[in-house]
Write a structure and sequence with these properties.
There is one protein chain. With about 290 residues, the protein is of the alpha/beta class. The protein has 3 domains: about 90 residues, Alpha-Beta Plaits, CATH 3.30.70; about 110 residues, Rhodanese-like domain (Oxidized Rhodanese, domain 1), CATH 3.40.250; about 35 residues, no CATH class. The chain has 9 helices and 15 strands. The strands form 5 sheets. A 5-stranded mixed β-sheet has the order 4-1-3-2-5. Strand 14 and strand 15 form a beta hairpin. Helix 1 packs antiparallel against helix 2. The longest helix is centred in the first third of the chain and has 15 residues. The chain is globular. The relative contact order is 0.12. The mean pLDDT is about 95. It is an enzyme of class 1 (oxidoreductase). Belongs to the TrhO family. This is tRNA uridine(34) hydroxylase.
Length: about 290
């Protein structure tokens, strides 16, 4: 059976977010849903997978709440269940940046539709920034985009403070996987005095879905946080696997490297492989 993978988020004040956990968890369990949903005072975020009917049931349940009536989501298909379990968690943030002045419920940048994105980033006066982490950027990004080389989204504010200047970067275009990190990032940059901050609505996933391959400015594949590892244009499954030791996406070329040993190490983690860790990984493989 083909499964539907639904990615969703919405920033909205949820003062009763803790009370929403159990009803949502119970429904997902009843529908055989797997994946993760995060609830916080600032909203909801998550990716879930299940049958067509199960996904529709969860989305209908959420949209019955007036605060989620206009909840948008993105879909792709999977031949096998991409998640091992179901989690509905309470968090302080639905995407963690760690600074209080990054609140999309207060202010947010200008949304740019996928079909208008090419024209924006082709403007030489626009600084294009990939807000994702370095391991995600390593397998694909937009032509000419800056890579902040962050290991976690918490490092993005420091990158802005040390590498960007509102007086120099007059126009900034941000993008991320599904759009949620850009909302936080744009809110933070506006609070720092940047005036013209744009972000790709629906993220890379929407762009890959909506923009024809022959018109695309995307290069490579897009990392996703499930067992598919990466997707391509049209949201077709990508070609990357994941290192079972460090979690870094790996290509066929990486697997041909002498530094690659399935389940033990890859070119990205071989330098940190101690003998103790090697033995531990070998035992896990057995």
């Amino acid at each position: 059976m083909t499964l539907v993978v639904a990615t969703l988020y919405k920033f909205v004040r949820l003062l009763d977010f803790a009370e929403q956990q159990q009803p949502l968890l119970s429904l997902c369990q009843q529908q055989g849903i797997k994946g993760t949903l995060l609830l916080a005072e600032e909203g909801i975020n998550g990716t879930i997978a299940g049958s067509r009917a199960a996904i529709d049931a969860v989305l209908s349940f959420l949209r019955a709440d007036p605060r989620f009536a206009d909840l948008e989501h993105k879909e792709s298909l999977a031949a096998v269940q991409p998640f091992a379990r179901l989690k509905v968690r309470l968090k302080s943030e639905i995407v963690t940046i760690g600074v209080p002045d990054a609140d999309p419920n207060v202010q947010v940048g200008t949304y740019v539709e996928a079909n208008d994105w090419n024209a924006l980033i082709a403007d030489p006066d626009v600084t294009v920034i990939d807000t994702r982490n370095n391991y995600e950027v390593s397998i694909g990004s937009f032509q000419g985009a800056e890579n902040p080389e962050t290991r976690s989204f918490r490092q993005f504010p420091e990158y802005v403070r040390t590498h960007l200047d509102p007086a120099k970067q007059k126009k900034v275009a941000l993008f991320c996987t599904g759009g949620i990190r850009c909302e936080k990032a744009s809110a933070f940059m506006l609070a720092q005095g940047f005036e013209n901050v744009y972000h790709l609505k629906g993220g890379i996933l929407k762009y890959l879905e909506a923009v024809p391959t022959d018109e695309s400015l995307w290069e490579g594949e897009c990392f996703v946080f499930d067992q598919r590892v990466a997707v391509q244009h049209g949201l077709e499954p990508g070609t990357h696997d994941m290192c079972r030791s460090c979690g870094h996406p790996i290509s066929d070329e990486d697997k041909a490297s002498p530094d690659y040993e399935d389940g033990i190490a890859c070119p990205y983690c071989i330098d940190s492989l101690t003998e103790e860790k090697r033995l531990r990984q070998q035992a896990r493989q057995r």
